[in-house]
């Protein structure tokens, strides 16, 4: 969900309007967002507010794709995500 939230932030910040496809290999995230009436956490609400803003100017698609079946762009996204885990992180309050 973090990646979807950050992507929507980027789209809004750079005003990249048009047809937008959000592909995720996380079935649980797609199912969670599909049950939007039950979303109550902050990140989920942020995503829905961004989607609401974008739906006025874009055609939005959210689709689950299977993982680990050698889809070129999914493998690239996974590699970039793994690289990102080694980058310095902004300050985050410790978990209690």
UniProtKB/TrEMBL annotation:
GO terms for molecular function: nucleic acid binding; RNA-DNA hybrid ribonuclease activity. Residues 1-86 form the RNase H type-1 domain. It comes from the Eukaryota. This is RNase H type-1 domain-containing protein. InterPro entries: RNaseH-like_sf, RNaseH_domain, RNaseH_sf.
